[in-house]
Design brief:
Helix content: 40-55%
Distance between the termini: 19 Å
Number of strands: 2
Shape: globular
Structural class: mainly alpha
Oligomer: single chain
Low-confidence stretches: none
Strand order of the largest sheet: 1-2
Strand content: under 5%
Order of helices and strands: HHHHHEEH
Radius of gyration: 17 Å
Number of helices: 6
Length: about 190
């Protein structure tokens, strides 16, 4: 890690004119949830920009196995679990980056190999596209769906959980990135 903190552009991660995140006032509940979800997805990706496989796989502090690469793999698995397996009703589909023998494969398998990095980002982006395609057809957020544990949850609850999941992990990504090269910012 560098000893000099880089605070970006007036404390922002990107120049305002180059920031891909949307900051409009969406109309309606679903549009609002989608904007937050999209912006958090973009933020996580931005925190990983311009890093080597070694930097992406750098672990936080023992005994944690958390890394930026692990977060990308984890969020690919989370997107897949909630949008494909749960909301689209494919509960029997195998989970990504998980096995019965190794529950933390998303983080434990996040190694500094360019092929692992490429796979993680490709799978994560594919899961986002799949999720967004499903969201394009979502109409009633109160609709109840079955979860893998047999309980029921509303689409709304699952979508809010996704926003919460990204928000928490973007906070982790902030700290991980600052440890890697000192860069901070939104």
């Amino acid at each position: 890690m560098t000893s000099q903190r880089e605070v970006g552009y007036n404390g922002m991660w990107a120049k305002p004119e180059a920031d891909p995140r949307i900051t409009v006032s969406p109309v309606g509940e679903l549009a609002t949830i989608r904007e937050y979800l999209s912006n958090y997805r973009l933020t996580l990706g931005m925190k990983c920009e311009d890093l080597s496989p070694e930097q992406l796989a750098a672990r936080s502090v023992p005994p944690s196995t958390m890394s930026l690469l692990g977060l990308i793999r984890h969020m690919a698995a989370v997107e897949h679990n909630w949008f494909y397996r749960t909301l689209q009703g494919h509960l029997n589909a195998p989970r990504l980056y998980w096995s019965a023998e190794e529950h933390d494969l998303d983080f434990d398998g996040a190694v500094a190999d360019p092929n692992v990095v490429d796979d993680a980002f490709t799978v994560w982006r594919e899961q986002i596209v799949t999720a967004d395609q499903w969201l394009d057809s979502a109409t009633d957020l109160g609709t109840m769906v079955s979860m893998a544990n047999g309980e029921q949850a509303s689409i709304r609850d699952i979508l809010i959980h996704m926003v919460e999941e990204y928000a928490r992990h973007c906070g982790h990504a902030d700290l991980l990135r600052e440890c890697i090269d000192g860069r901070t910012g939104q």
